[in-house]
Design brief:
This protein is mostly beta strands and 699 residues long. The protein folds into 4 domains: 16-174, Fimbrillin-like (Immunoglobulin-like, Sandwich); 177-316, Immunoglobulin-like (Sandwich), CATH 2.60.40; 318-392, Sandwich (Immunoglobulin-like), CATH 2.60.40.4270; 411-696, Pectate Lyase C-like (3 Solenoid). 1% of the residues lie in helices and 45% in strands. The chain contains 1 helix and 59 strands. It has a 26-stranded mixed β-sheet that branches. Strand 18 (252-257) and strand 19 (260-265) form a beta hairpin.
């Protein structure tokens, strides 16, 4: 076949086999072979009926191009395997055997016969090519030269004929995929006049071509084709690559000019089986190489005709810098292409500050950005990037917190008496599957509460299933209770700057026991401040007493400040007493500056007492400067909708935070209340974006 150029877009090959079946009939099925019934095979390359063709008429067969023809007849005898036909540039003729054997295809009877043909020819007459007709090949850089492209441009055709109508018109189609890259110098770059090469990564080079079905597909894993050639015409380098059809979710293009690497991702149309190199399809990209940026638009796609084009801007590689951030030593920076994936350094070359250990990398020095573990993968964003080392302390003080970067770190909080007293900071969002509330087991049925501090850092913990624990806490009573929450019991400790999402279902199995259910804490004797609970709480089964709230089940002797809850709270359990509240099920201490934005708080009444209200079900303490959504319904047959008419001022859910100084307004404190309000901090802790509910800043 003529040398492959970008103008060769679609080849339609008509192979006309005039099978003269004179003297043949269904009663005379003996093989025949003479000049009068020899197949006359011609081939033309051009437009055929029902095939779109633009410049295909410019493509012709080269002398000595060979195709392989096979035939099969379900009921007849015309069965040939891989018969080689060669063209002199216009007519295809069978290739004689080494001993002069006649390899012409003849009809052997009058039955319909199926013909298949493929290009380029491999193997020998009478034997299926490759392994049972399947050719396996690993594409190389050498294959992508202009002279060698025809050898990997697999074509295939199929047709049916019989002796009564012996004309066989083969319409060949391309079975591979093709990429055409037109390179152009952009701002700050000059392309060489000749010899420009490029690299494609993320593509499988090993694949198979089935000559029986025409299917071509990649079979290997992603690899790299380096230093692929281009041809320069009128000053513009153009690269053409023929590839195995395959998924193409991470294909990247890069080239190097004067020691500087440029690159970008190649994005393919979603209509081609997702992100994929589709068979018989050509993709054209106009690549603009400049130092300021790299943009690769989606390629136009057509059936191996005029493929159209899209523009690409090829950027210079970005710099990834590592900052010791208080440690000593140095990690070398690296060049990474935008959108490319790289493995991060393990930090072993750095010496930690005294008393600390390396915990990973963060995009912000205080740990409020995106966290990356050592040796993890990073996809390079636009622009240069600096990663800061994070150093985990021993937890002895708030200034030396233990940094939590995985689920095991969360579980370790309750692993020992020492751990429950430490200080912690969360460094990334985590999903907690089948979670057991944090507690420290101390022997028998006894457990101890959390005494330290837990700084969520503005991150989110998602409860994906919560298993109840049954424990005796001496600071509550000597009885055994059930706890469904993130923390079972906090005493003197603090949880702050944390969001908790998910769902808790407390399935009661003991009608003589208390159940404490809360999005953050079951039984609180500490402080919970600047937190969000988006936890749906549901109680089922049977129990003695149920205390359930969005933040805490029972705020017995603790403080809940500057928090809000949004999850639905519902009880379907059979219980003697039911206390439900948007913030806490029960309160005997302080709830201030909080908002209940729960969609609803409702459920089955207790057999003795039912207290269901918007902020807290029952209170023997203070509830000051709290709000609830005006659309929040807190239903229960017993007890008023609002605890003694003063637990909150109902405001529309969309405006309760209007004016970031809202919580600094002066309020009449209840008699005996001596605490000073700390307003919501919209400078360092909270922020409001796009009129939505406040979110926690990460830091």
């Amino acid at each position: 076949m003529k040398q492959f150029t970008s103008t060769r877009l679609f080849a339609v090959t008509s192979v006309v086999a005039a099978m003269l079946a004179a003297g043949c009939s269904e009663e005379n099925n003996e093989p025949v072979g003479n000049a009068s019934n020899a197949a006359i095979v011609t081939a033309s390359i051009g437009k055929a009926d029902n095939v779109t063709s633009t410049r295909a008429s410019n493509t012709v067969w080269d002398a000595d191009d060979c195709i392989g023809i096979s035939t099969s007849s379900a009921k007849g005898k015309t069965n040939y395997i891989n018969i080689q036909y060669k063209t002199d540039g216009s007519v295809f003729k069978p290739v004689s055997g080494a001993a002069g054997e006649d390899n012409t295809i003849y009809f052997q009877d009058t039955s319909p016969t199926e013909f298949t043909a493929y290009y380029p020819y491999e193997g020998v007459n009478g034997t299926k090519p490759g392994s049972n007709g399947v050719i396996t090949r690993t594409l190389t850089v050498a294959d992508q030269s202009t002279a060698n492209l025809p050898a990997i441009d697999y074509l295939w055709a199929q047709q049916t004929a019989q002796s009564s109508n012996p004309k066989v018109d083969f319409q060949f189609s391309h079975r591979m995929s093709r990429i055409i890259l037109n390179f152009k110098a952009g701002a700050g770059t000059v392309l060489p006049t000749d010899g420009l090469t490029y690299t494609l990564t993320g593509l499988a080079t090993e694949g198979t071509f089935n000559t029986l079905t025409g299917e071509a597909q990649a079979t290997g894993t992603a690899s790299t084709l380096e230093k692929l050639p281009t041809i320069t015409t009128a000053g513009q380098p153009t690269g053409t690559a023929i590839l195995w059809p395959q998924p193409a979710n991470s294909v990247r293009l890069q080239l190097t000019l004067n020691g500087t690497t440029f690159g970008a991702a190649l994005t393919f149309p979603s209509g081609t089986a997702g992100e994929a190199l589709a068979p018989s399809t050509s993709y054209t990209f106009n690549v603009n190489v400049e130092r300021t940026g790299i943009e690769i638009s989606k390629a136009d796609i057509e059936d191996w005709t005029d493929g159209g084009s899209k523009d690409i801007t090829l950027q210079e590689a970005r710099t990834l810098t590592y900052d010791a951030n208080g440690g000593t030593g140095m990690v070398n920076s690296s060049k990474v292409l935008e959108g490319a994936t790289t493995t991060l350094n393990d930090g072993a070359a750095l010496t930690p500050p005294t008393g600390k250990t390396f915990a990973g990398w963060n995009t912000l020095p205080e740990g409020g950005g995106e966290f990356y573990a050592k040796n993890s993968k990073l996809t390079m964003p636009a622009g240069n990037l600096t990663l800061y080392a994070l150093w985990s302390g021993d937890g002895s003080t708030k200034e030396k917190p233990v940094l939590i970067t995985d689920v095991q770190g969360m579980k370790d909080i309750g692993a020992s008496d020492e751990n429950r007293r430490k200080h912690y900071r969360l460094c990334k969002d985590l999903v907690l599957d089948n979670w057991e509330a944090i507690h420290c087991y101390s022997g028998g049925s006894s457990s101890e509460p959390f005494l330290g501090t837990f700084d969520g850092g503005g991150h989110t913990l998602t409860l994906n299933g919560v298993k109840g624990i049954r424990a005796v806490f001496g600071n509550i009573s000597n009885a055994s209770y059930y706890f469904f929450s993130l923390f079972a019991n906090i005493q003197g400790g603090e949880v702050r700057r944390l969001r908790v999402d998910g769902q808790i279902t407390a399935d009661g199995t003991d009608e003589s026991t208390y159940y404490y259910v809360g999005g953050i804490c079951g039984y609180n004797l500490g402080t919970i401040t600047d937190c969000i609970s988006n936890v749906t709480v549901t109680a089922t089964g049977k129990m003695d007493v149920l205390k359930a709230g969005g933040i805490a089940g029972d705020n017995s002797g603790g403080n809940i400040f500057n928090c809000y809850a949004t999850g639905e709270i519902e009880n379907t359990a059979t219980a003697e007493d039911v206390d439900l509240g948007g913030i806490a099920g029960a309160n005997n201490s302080r709830i201030a500056n909080c908002a209940a934005l729960n969609s609803s708080i409702s459920g089955k009444n207790g057999q003795k007492n039912t207290r269901i209200h918007r902020i807290t079900g029952i209170s023997g303490g203070y509830i000051v400067n709290n709000y609830a959504s005006a659309v929040l319904t807190a239903s229960g047959e017993k007890g008023p909708d609002k605890l003694d008419g003063a637990d909150c001022d109902a405001k529309p859910a969309a405006s309760w935070w209007t004016g970031q100084g809202r919580w600094a307004d002066s309020y009449q404190h209840p008699e005996g209340y001596t605490d000073t309000f700390t307003p919501w901090d919209f400078t360092t802790t909270w922020e409001v974006t796009d009129g939505n509910q406040p979110v926690l800043r990460r830091k």
